[in-house]
Q: What sequence folds into this?
């Protein structure tokens, strides 16, 4: 599907900056051939497809916010109250740090990132050009803002991958009304680590009989994901899953039902972004329960890493029908970029690759034998599979073939290509 970036004639010089940003994206493997640049007939910059149009304005040129879908404000020394739904406030001084602030386009939730302003962060045209390029590549606004800010800390030809270059998602801010359901403090301890030699193949099942069968077949990490909370024998299944894990010396994670996991001393809990908001992180940590968290992009990844989880799930990589997803498929290029970023994040217990940086990672979403090798080459720690095993005529043979793929540690190679 073709995407047109139409730049207002008063800021036509932005075209070169946008082209440069797209070329850097292409060097990473992201597809840009479907993106074309032109001139807007209005004062808005337009990102157009056959089915949609996003009108973007900014105080970088003569353009008023009511006339556009998204307004990028660079020259405000304070936030308007209430925050305008369609406005992102860039570089607002807030004590010793600066903030980029915006409202989520769907749920209207106020979000912000903080960073220390450096002298090289004053090139607003470059920041804006990167923001436009990233939006045209179908990055969500929150990820585009994260990357555009990180890009101000690296050279013109470089895609940011170092954790130190990225801003930090704000978890609490009284003036902006930001308050997550959980809180990561500076003295929060690392969640207990997983045994990575047991983490490699990670089936996710919705039935106890499948969990039992997989453990009998030698699987050492498995997740019980029962979607219906009104399942009559839900607690009994959770209890049985925990006991089976102990019997087989396996790492059994309970999806969502953290209260039952706490009550019955589970090995681990896996939570999504929404479930995280209503969970009791302190209780889980005190109980020494391992914590795995789902992420769907840069913002969510850098937000939850402040919790120092046991592992980070990255997805969904390919289209999947197992559940309704809040995001679009990430593809292999983005997966490799997320992994490269995670490899630079300091931790307290280390990974098998480095003793000071990185977290175990689990790739999930649409993974089967046809694409597993390409996913594994992105450098992840583990492959989560659902239907690839449960729909197989001979599960043991499928497990063996996955094992063959994952025997050696692949690094990211040039064959990784964009699948979006």
A:
């Amino acid at each position: 599907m073709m995407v047109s970036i139409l730049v207002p004639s008063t800021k036509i010089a932005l075209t070169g900056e946008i082209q440069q940003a797209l070329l850097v994206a292409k060097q990473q493997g992201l597809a840009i051939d479907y993106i074309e640049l032109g001139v807007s007939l209005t004062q808005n910059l337009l990102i157009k497809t056959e089915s949609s149009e996003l009108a973007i304005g900014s105080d970088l040129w003569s353009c008023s916010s009511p006339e556009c879908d998204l307004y990028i404000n660079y020259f405000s020394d304070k936030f308007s109250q209430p925050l305008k739904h369609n406005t992102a406030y860039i570089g607002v001084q807030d004590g010793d740090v600066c903030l980029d602030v915006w409202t989520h386009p769907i749920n209207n939730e106020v979000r912000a990132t903080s960073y220390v302003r450096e002298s090289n962060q004053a090139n607003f045209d470059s920041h804006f050009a990167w923001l436009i390029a990233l939006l045209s590549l179908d990055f969500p606004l929150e990820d585009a803002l994260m990357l555009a800010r990180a890009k101000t800390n690296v050279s013109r030809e470089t895609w940011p991958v170092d954790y130190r270059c990225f801003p930090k998602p704000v978890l609490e801010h009284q003036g902006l009304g930001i308050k997550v359901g959980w809180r990561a403090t500076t003295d929060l301890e690392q969640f207990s680590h997983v045994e990575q030699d047991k983490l490699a193949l990670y089936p996710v099942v919705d039935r106890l009989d499948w969990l039992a069968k997989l453990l009998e077949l030698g699987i050492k990490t498995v997740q019980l994901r029962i979607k219906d909370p009104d399942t009559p024998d839900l607690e009994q299944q959770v209890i049985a899953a925990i006991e089976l894990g102990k019997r087989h010396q396996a790492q059994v994670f309970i999806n969502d039902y953290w209260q039952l996991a706490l009550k019955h001393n589970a090995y681990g809990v896996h939570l999504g972004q929404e479930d995280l908001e209503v969970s009791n992180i302190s209780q889980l940590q005190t109980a020494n329960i391992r914590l795995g968290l789902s992420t769907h992009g840069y913002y969510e990844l850098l937000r939850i890493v402040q919790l120092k989880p046991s592992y980070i799930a990255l997805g969904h990589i390919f289209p999947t029908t197992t559940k309704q997803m809040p995001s679009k498929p990430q593809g292999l290029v983005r997966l490799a970029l997320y992994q490269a970023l995670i490899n630079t994040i300091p931790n307290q217990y280390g990974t098998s690759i480095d003793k000071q940086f990185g977290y175990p990672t689990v790739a999930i979403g649409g993974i089967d034998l046809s694409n597993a090798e390409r996913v594994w080459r992105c450098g992840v720690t583990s492959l989560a599979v659902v239907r690839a095993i449960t729909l197989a005529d001979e599960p043991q043979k499928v497990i063996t073939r996955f094992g063959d793929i994952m025997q050696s540690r692949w690094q990211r190679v040039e064959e990784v290509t964009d699948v979006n």
Notes: Confidence is low (pLDDT under 50) at residues 410-417.
